[in-house]
Known about the structure:
The complex is a heterotrimer. Helix content of chain A is 39%, strand content 15%. Chain A has helices spanning 4-7, 68-79, 95-100, 103-117, 131-135, 140-150, 171-179, 206-213, 227-231, 247-257, 270-284, 291-309, 324-333, 351-360, 381-385, 393-399, 415-431, 436-440, and strands at 22-24, 60-66, 88-92, 124-130, 155-161, 191-195, 217-220, 238-241, 260-263, 313-317, 337-342, 365-367, 388-391, 404-405. In chain A, helix 13 runs parallel beside helix 14. The mean pLDDT of chain A is 95. In chain B, the strands form three sheets. In chain B, strands 12-11-10-13-14 form a five-stranded parallel beta sheet, sandwiched between helices. Chain B has a four-stranded parallel beta sheet with strand order 3-2-4-5, sandwiched between helices. Chain B has a four-stranded parallel beta sheet with strand order 7-6-8-9, sandwiched between helices. The radius of gyration of chain B is 21 Å and the shape is globular. The model of chain B has no long low-confidence stretch (mean pLDDT 93). The interface between A and B is large, with 77 and 87 residues. Chain B: InterPro entries: Nase/OxRdtase_comp1 (IPR000510), NifE-like (IPR049939). Chain B: Pfam families: Oxidored_nitro.
Amino acid sequence: MIYENEIRPRVLIPKVSPAGAETDIGHASFPEPFHIGLQYSSPARGHWTIAHSPMLIPECHEIYVCYACCLHGVVLSADEVPDGAGRFSMVTLTNENILKGNLEEMMIDGISDIIDHLPERPRCVEGFTSCMQHFLHIDLKLVYGTLRKKYPDIDFIDGYMIPTLQHRFSPDVLGRRQLTRAIQKQPRKKAVNFVVNYFPVDPECELVTMLQAGGYTIHDFAACPTYDEYKAMGESIANIYFHENARPAALDMEKRLEQTPLYIPYAFCYDEIRAHLQEAADCLQLSMPDTDAYEARCEAALERLHDEVGNTHMSIDYTATPRPLNLARLLLTHGFNVYAVYLDTVLADDKDDFYFLQEHYPELQLRSTMHFKRSLLPRDDTRRYGKVLAIGQMAAYFTDSNYFVNIVENSGLYGYTGLLKLISLTSEAFKEEKDMRRIVQIKAWGCHG
Amino acid sequence: MKQAQQVLSTYAVDVFGIASALYELGGLIIMHDASGCNSTYNTHDEPRWYDLPAMVYISGLNEADTIYGNDQRLIDNIAEVVDAGKPTFIAIGGSPMPNAIGTDYKAIAQMASRRTGIPAFGFRTDGIHSYLPGAGAAFLTYAKEFLQAPQKKPQQPARRVNLLGLTPLDFSVVGNATTLKNLITENGFILQSSWAMGESPEGLAQAANADVNAVVSATGFYLAQYMQEAYGIPYVCGLPMGKKGTAGWLQALRDGDTSYLTGLTGKEKPARLNRALTKLDAWKVEQVYDDTPCDVLLINGEPLQLLSMRQFLADEYGLHDVRLLCPLADAPEPLTTQIETACSEEAIRRECRKARRIIADPIYARLLPGEEKKFLSFPHEAYSGRHYRDDLPLFVGPDARKWLDEKGF
Amino acid sequence: MRKIAIYGKGGIGKSTTSANISAALALMGKKVIQIGCDPKADSTLNLLHGEPVMPVMDYYREFDDEPDFEHVGREGFGGVFCIETGGPTPGLGCAGRGIIATFDLLEDLEVFDRINPDVVIYDVLGDVVCGGFAAPIREGYANEVFIVTSGEKMSLYAANNISRAVENFQDRGYAQVKGLILNRRNIEDEREKVDEFAAKRGLPVIADIPRSKEIQRCEELGMTVVEDNPDAPLSRIYIQLAKDLLKEEG
């Protein structure tokens, strides 16, 4: 039983002004609205980490080769999903390895030792190196080359947990790319992949219907039931991706597997949804659905939602969707009272929306989630504004609202159907309180190992 | 391969120990590491994170700063926070990368202090050693800066008691800290200060007025030795567990009996804190121990929990064939003379095979698949974080056997 | 206890200078520790009659354990206690970490307390590299720095880099450069060039060591010039330098 006095002792909390951590969009600059010095990290943790995403590859075993400090986080995070621990091992780096300079040898020996002692032989092993190996520039080709020779029946993926040394790619972007590296070229079939999303694309969405009607088999990275199904992604002619962070993965697959990359990002405003569907239709010779009918349904649904929520304060965060400003734009232009969007940078896809909002809704607040002041600013919007309807876990935590839509990275919602479902989820969220405290602290929401 | 761990976890590291120890004291605490690396501490090791705002941040170290050894950005960022948040001190500790390039935390602290005008502590941590010396160094350093000279000399029988070494890493937030404090105040003592859960900085500053220090985890041991040397305050190591154990502990406090449980004299040389933070081969200690089977094996990273629980099992259950295993080789040496140390997965598995029953964090049960029944779950926040917090017992006080009985021990 | 760090361009004669200073101090009855802080581990060779001490990092690599006091160093000429940090396998690992780890170990073994030296000489690797470069001048280690240089352009260039780098550490409370030691290479106007540089940086030239074949001859024998013949003119220069170094403090 948690003792309230132990988690909430009487301590003087510094009072700070929001300046620097919050700005109205009218005065914000693109794409970095904030100067981030020392960084805070919120307890809302539904977004996924590189400890979780490899679990989407069936029969893949993760082996992290890092220092205790880095391992402590990933092992316990992996442990929180069912059988996460059974799919996770580690080799602990120490100062001794730096002094001796035997980082390659210890990695080969360590990974071998773990594979030899696993109760079942994994079909795929993703090894993870940390900042140190790369700072000292170890020869990874030698390491994985040796391992591949030693275990020819196992696919090895070189994974990276190198937050200090991110050059072109953030850990998430690089992580997504590496997840596709065990896919090899296979004889072509009329098939497409969805890459590299952490949630299966909603099978009811019109994109899936279009593809099926066009005779395509769909391999959804996030919904591979077996390792063979994962490998079957090598037979597809195209990779459809929805998140900017998956671009390097799709481009890499184009180069390695000669699969056409097709970027049709998540979007909420109709013209964009329509344009993306059209792009898919053109690229894959599909028939378009009746977009006018969809749009009419969305309009009606938005109207009904507006009747319900009226002028209720609404906030959105970037973990709910990679397009928080596009969503804010849709809602604001339909009369909703969106007052705050939580984000730290504006992604390129949201650029037009940023400038649109800057011009038409200059008072919309942008709020940083990692600025040092965020931890000290009161979470009192619910007391200031009354009920706050939040879209996303971080928005819910920071506004202290139990009325929130619990989605992470769009949670598979796509297109008009996705929007309709989001509207319905928002309506539910408005009506029913959730156990925010419990939900937002769960790592990698929806990751089932 | 001693470094390979197929199923086990790792303990909270040094820099997390610093943050945990100083969390409530109004300081600015910085982990010098890459963006995102703080979520480990925040998620798994800090149960106060959701409810209690604190100035605990990550520096967002990047490659350029590492290669160029650029500490200036860090100093500027520190100054920005000091200006807005008005912390009363700065504590900075590091992680593997700054350690590899030899970052000089003392120098950084000196620069930060000069820039901001408040005390700053630099901790030579590397993210490799455990929270024991980390939190230990934090308590000691904080005390050296803020302790005020005592107005009174320590009295005997003792009345005023400090609790040293209270962090959620060893006690979680399930009432153990509260019970310890209640035991003090309900048995004729005055609680002088608690280091450092539920205590104000003003209260801590008066700690040298205590008659005795109750060291309740190894993280408080360094400070206890210091206060013994500086102010002549005797210390008592151990935890009150069970009726007899609680009575014995209270009596030892009254008498200022340093030999209680540990056999220490109080005249020992100060435990080598810097050594604990820099020792190169702490991780691979692996003596070969006696092969005789034993009845109960206790595994715990915190030596005083081990010693106290052994006493408790003898008192309450009449068990005497109990072995103690600490997987942390950087625990203070004077506290581990009666404890076996083994760090590698294989060595710990070997020790587990020798025992009929094992009381340990539930993660250790994975060492012997199919024999999980041998293991009795005693979660340790510093090891498995929040994962098993629901199962974390109230393990101190006269009713300590309740949780073991409920588990059918 | 005086703690002096000797810096300078690689190959300029730091180790020769350090070893001769140590030998001279030993002759004056001083207890000296010389610590070679360079993966090359050749700082103390000429104090040990060519029989090298096992560097701390090599010991670590070979025995998988830290050396104890008996194995951390060895006494050489005049009782000078010789220690070499050594480094990782060339091309792998981190040399700076090796220096820092050795210092940690010296502290843990209480080497200074046990030997109680009058002078500690840190002979530091020639080039400005990672944190290992500054480790010998941090708080608690060397409290004064001397740079060995010739009048050659590249040597003065290196000396300039070193002295500026050290100057940058001033706000960290590190040791500062106290002077230059001219180790001649017999180039034209050598003294003038060094004097000009010294004036620019506001540093004294505390010794002027002539180029001499004697040094090489003695090195062949595995010893310092001072050991070979304390009365030789060159030895007298080193002895004077040692005396001046001791005086410097005041």
